[in-house]
Design a protein that fits this description.
The chain is of the alpha+beta class and 458 residues long. The protein contains 9 helices and 23 strands. It has 2 domains: 38-315, Sandwich (Immunoglobulin-like); 324-449, Orthogonal Bundle (Neutral Protease, domain 2), CATH 1.10.390. α2 packs across α3 (304-315) and α4 crosses α6.
Length: 458
């Protein structure tokens, strides 16, 4: 998510949680979401959606494994009604819905380590969830659909174990009105048309947290932004309304350069391609999902404010998508890194040196209230601009302390070592100690876990 103020494990899905995080534990920032009972390894979603009536008929097949003895399987599902459920091929006789949760009761308790499959048919008129962070989830546009999942919007359109640490692969099939394009996470496998309906099938092979899953539907044309690209650079696309084609090409003209810059700084781009969706409606803030980002036409200008947002969302593919915080209290590992990526691009693009960006950010944070711990800001403040700016200042202080060579080697190793996994602040501190030889705890603690703002690093 963009700054809106004021508005070691192997690659693949981890089976061992980061230090200090209980496997699958409900996140204290989102009580009532997620469960310790099981882990989902794959979602297969089939969505049939009618735009005129905002009617969704869905089927969700979840492949999962129990973590402890389980007499009831609890899923998150908000505003939609489950109609039929099978558990490992057998019809479920007892299930119920209440308080945005779907509870499935097996005939016999499941044992730890037991594989199971849930096949859930559901229906309804999806809409956004309202909470501390405004409206999140499935949202109707003037002529289409937008899904903004962060942090708890996934349950507005499919039943899930809604916890950032529970990462799984996905296949998403969307059938909707012809002449509309459905854009989802991952690689497009097929597109078929039958009469007035069109079906799109996407495969997201790399593990993904539920809040990063998305569906975008609109009258979009698909542009290639880097038809001629350096060796090793992945394809970049833009799904845009025909009327915004030229505006999108102009506004996103430097995105391929941003991709090259971030690849140099953070390591290889972690997915097969990258797509930007530009909605016809103006949006308050842009959004990121795994393998794609969503902007309004108001974010396609040439000014720094628009260009920094384009850089910010792109950098989340490394920090937030491939590397996902195991707990929302560590959100600075997403937003502080993405804000610092803005500053890196600012210097690379010749707009303003990083030192000046850091000084301006320090002055802004210093002028604000000193009532936040960036490393554990609380649910009300986890999207506060100080998490973004002070998180970026934390990285700048680290860079000045250890030097460019060690700093960027650390970022490469951090992104590679934890590719497609989950991460925590204690892990980052340990990785920093190992990579740089400095006392990372002494350096980072005042920035992350004290309210007083440290002096501007020089």
């Amino acid at each position: 998510m963009s700054s809106s103020a004021p508005s070691s494990a192997p690659s693949g899905n981890r089976s061992v949680p980061p230090a200090g995080v209980e496997a699958g534990a409900p996140d204290p920032y989102l009580p009532g979401h997620g469960t310790t009972a099981y882990r989902v390894t794959r979602y297969e979603l089939e969505l049939d959606y009618k735009l005129s009536s905002n009617r969704l008929n869905g089927r969700a097949i979840l492949h999962a494994v129990t973590q402890r003895p389980t007499s009831a399987i609890v899923l998150d599902l908000a505003g939609l009604r489950a109609t039929r459920i099978q558990l490992s091929g057998r019809k479920v006789r007892k299930f119920s819905q209440h308080a945005d949760q779907l509870v499935v009761v097996p005939d016999a308790a499941l044992l730890p380590g037991e594989d199971f499959t849930l096949d859930i048919r559901y229906e309804g008129n999806p809409g956004p969830r309202r909470g501390l962070w405004g409206e999140v989830g499935w949202e109707e546009l003037t002529d289409g659909v937008l899904v903004a999942g962060q942090p708890n919007g996934a349950a507005s359109w499919f039943p899930c174990n809604d916890h950032p640490q529970d990462k799984a692969s996905y296949r998403i099939t969307v059938t909707t009105d012809a002449n509309y394009r459905a854009v989802c996470n991952g690689v497009l496998l097929s597109r078929t048309r039958r009469s007035s309906r069109e079906t799109w099938v996407y495969e997201q092979a790399e593990p993904m947290s539920t809040y990063l899953a998305t569906v975008q539907i609109g009258r979009y044309e698909l542009l290639t932004l880097n038809a001629v690209r350096p060796a090793g650079q992945v394809p970049q696309y833009a799904a845009v309304p025909a009327s915004l084609t030229e505006a999108a090409r102009r506004g996103l003209a430097r995105q391929p350069e941003m991709m090259q810059t971030f690849t140099n700084c953070f390591g290889p781009y972690p997915f097969a391609d990258y797509t930007v969706v530009v909605t016809e409606d103006e949006l308050e803030i842009p959004l990121e999902a795994q393998t794609l980002s969503i902007f309004g036409p108001n974010h396609l200008l040439q000014d720094w404010e628009s260009q920094r947002l384009i850089a910010h969302e792109l950098s989340h593919q490394w920090f937030g998508n491939s590397l996902t915080a195991a707990s929302w209290k560590d959100i600075w590992l997403h937003e502080g890194f993405a804000c610092y990526a803005e500053w890196i691009w600012s210097e690379e693009a010749g707009v303003m040196p990083i030192a000046q960006r850091a000084a301006a950010a320090w002055r802004k944070v210093n002028a604000a209230a000193k009532d936040i711990l960036v490393g554990d800001p609380g649910p009300e403040l986890m999207f506060d601009d100080r998490v973004y700016k002070r998180g970026a200042l934390t990285l700048h202080a680290l860079r000045l302390a250890c030097g460019d060579l060690a700093f960027f080697a650390l970022l490469h190793d951090w992104a590679d070592h934890n590719r497609h996994g989950t991460v925590s602040t204690p892990e980052f501190i340990l990785a920093t100690n190992a990579a740089t030889g400095i006392d990372a705890e002494a350096l980072l603690h005042p920035w992350l876990f004290e309210e007083a703002l440290p002096a501007l690093p020089r």
